Amino acid sequence: MKLSRGEKLFGATNVVVLGAVALLCLYPFVYTLSISLSTAAEANRDGFHFFPRDISLVSYRMVLTNPNIVTGYMNTLLRTVLGTSLTLAATCIAAYPLSRREMPHRAMLTFLVVFTMLFSGGMVPAYLLVKNLGMINTVWALTVPGMITAFNVIIVKNFFQSLPESLVESARLDGAGEWTILFRLYLPLSKPVLATVALWTAVGHWNAWFDALLYITDDRKQVLQTFLQRIVIESSTQMMELGITDTSIVQFTSETIKAATIIVTILPIICVYPFVQKYFVKGIMLGGVKG
After folding, report:
1. Which pLDDT value is given to residue 85?
2. Cβ atoms of 51 and 209 closer than 8 Å
3. Where are the alpha helices (DSSP H) in 37-105?
4. Are residues 127 and 214 in contact, defined by beta-carbon separation less than 8 angstroms?
5. Partner residues linked to 55 by β-bridges
């Protein structure tokens, strides 16, 4: 089909505008990466920083060899993997009965789930509950309170309801029970929505720091984002000192340390996201259509 002159102009305008927006969104990442690879003099240079003129890896060496950062990395990895696994398991177990039409009082239970999206107990009751359960200074304080959310349950429930009812009827004729239908029929067919929920949850756990600030008082159990928060917000590089006495120490500043820490922090999510992106739009569309 031949496009008219107006359609071609509209398409070209969209490309230019969206391209400009994409560059604006990309520049902060490019700037941070450039600063993290720069020497102190280059980082203090005025103007745009698209690429470093004088490259130095001292900031990365200090970040990657700092025991606090390494410990925080391990704790964040544990939190992300454990928290995402618990969320997927709990969400599927909660969403499956709500998706079944023969479930007694299904409408009322669904309303109660949605009701929790509007109101919460608050920070103080949540802290007291975590404390009374003995989860202070444990990874469970970071994973159990947010293990299941109403939004994820509704998305997965709607996806389950979009699956053909004939599949369930055929499975029951073959003698399958509810657990078999869930784990051997529903879950294999639900990879798009499960990948979407897993991505949301993993990014949320990876970026979270405030709950760790509340519930974790032992630095050996602290997560990476809390150390990043201290470096960026408090503008302190004292915690990054590793006793380096050679001349390379003049090649970093507080800004290069911050930038290197940020890049090291976001790198895992950037590496994982392209592999999950293909499921993202499909999972959102299929999970949000049918109520």
Report:
1. 94
2. no
3. 40-43, 58-64, 67-99
4. yes
5. 38
Q: Which residues pair with 38 in a beta bridge?
A: 55
Distance CA(44)–CA(254), nearest Å, equals 11
Output the furthest CA–CA distance in the chain (Å, rounded): 76
Domains of the chain: 59-289 (1.10.3720.10)
Which amino acid, residue 20? A
Single out the residue of 79, 33, 77, 84 nearest to residue 59, CA to CA: 33
Question: What single-letter DSSP state applies at residue 38?
Answer: B
Hey, which residues does 26 pair with through a beta bridge?
A: none
Identity of residue 254? S
How far is the C-alpha of 31 from the C-alpha of 38, rounded, in Å? 11
Round to whole Å and give the CA distance between 254 and 244. 15
What radius of gyration do the chain's Cα atoms show?
A: 24
3-state secondary structure of 248: helix
Give residue-wise pLDDT tens across range 133-154. Answer: 999 999 999 999 989 988 899 9
